[in-house]
Amino acid sequence: MGIIERIREIEAEMARTQKNKATEYHLGQLKAKIAKLRTQLLEPPKGASGGGEGFEVTKYGHGRVALIGFPRIWRLMVLGKLMEVVVLCSVGKSTLLTMLTGTHSEAASYEFTTLTCIPGVIHYNDTKIQLLDLPGIIEGASEGKGRGRQVIAVAKSSDLVLMVLDASKSEGHRQILTKELEAVGLRLNKKPPQIYFKKKKTGGISFNTTAPLTHIDEKLCYQILHEYKIHNAEVLFRENATVDDFIDVIEGNRKYIKCVYVYNKIDVVGIDDVDRLARQPNSIVISCNLKANRLLARMWDEMGLVRVYSKPQGQQPYFDEPFVLSSDRGGCTVEDFCNHVHRTLVKDMKYALVLGTSARHNPQNCGLSQHLEDEDVVQVVKKKERDEGGRGRFKSHSNAPARIADREKKAPLKQ
What we know:
This protein is of the alpha/beta class.
């Protein structure tokens, strides 16, 4: 029996099992088994060579955004055989890429127009954002259907996912895409759970919690760890987490990424439907026939990019070339800004003068931990180099050895 068949068998068993207090331990063990099998499914097959057609592209710019869509497929019974018929419509990912970046991506009225990863660059607010047009994801992409593994692997390396949906279609597309992405370890619009987990060599399992738990207890935690053959570990719950959160921490390969649901083709639906879709969380409504300024502004806010301008001492700031910082890529402090300029600047910095919205007064004398905001101006003041010679009795330091025994003994005075 293959891995996919074993996963389906366990999912069928979970569907048959009633959810109550008596079966929660059994369901927790089944969830752990499915997570282990999905991890094995993502591993490359043994003996497979690294050759073949490339799919990933080199990272470029200050951020990366991935376009993910769903190509709709109808399955019909023709003469007793199950056949797949492609519907003549698409969500408009290629058209959106061309409109935002100017990069030509083949667009047509049928699905699977895009068969590989097509990159483009968005120039917005003096920054460069890489936009990737990925092939459509179908149901079963987490199992390798329709180049699903390659598409999801590229999505994992992105800073933001734009899930392009057709406003005139049902909500089932959004649920299928979310399910396929979560099956391979992508957690959309979620934060990492506050659970401390560390394996040990000896000592058994140490279980502690600082918050009341309603979804998991110590016994279920032990059973899940034994399923992973972990018998010595330290576990600390800092929040009311679920069984799935604890399994994600044990696996350690989950990617928590922001996602914006983009509903395209709003010009073919009624105003009531547009208002309903726009009020959903993490959603935005657009049309490729109109301008996409609202979409660019939403991408900028979700990625959390911060532009910082450098100012040499006694000169005007350099407003032409900002340093772009991000909380997801390092941080937005003065120390991160110094590392962007040069890696040795942190050691040589005495203090920094910050002008902008993050400063209480302009300019403000700040240290390395000062958090910077968009369009701040930073002037780094370096430490003065100490003079080796010094002057007179105000000499800054001595060249004599530190220990008295190592100093040269003076000749005795003549009698």
